[in-house]
Design a protein that fits this description.
DUF6757
Length: 54
């Protein structure tokens, strides 16, 4: 499987409703960084009260 965004080999794949999408390492990291900075994730953290332990 190839990355959804480029021609590299997909390192990760996600499937939902029978549709499978692959991401190479670079694009996977970019998407995770975008999610980490998103308002949606912040709202979800508040909703489920996530606490980090170190």
């Amino acid at each position: 499987m190839k990355c959804h965004y480029c021609d590299r080999k997909a390192a990760y794949a996600a499937e939902k409703d029978g549709i499978k999408v692959g991401l190479c390492e670079r694009h996977f990291r970019e998407r995770v960084e975008e999610l980490a900075d998103s308002d949606e994730l912040a709202a979800l953290r508040e909703q489920i009260d996530i606490d980090r332990t170190e």
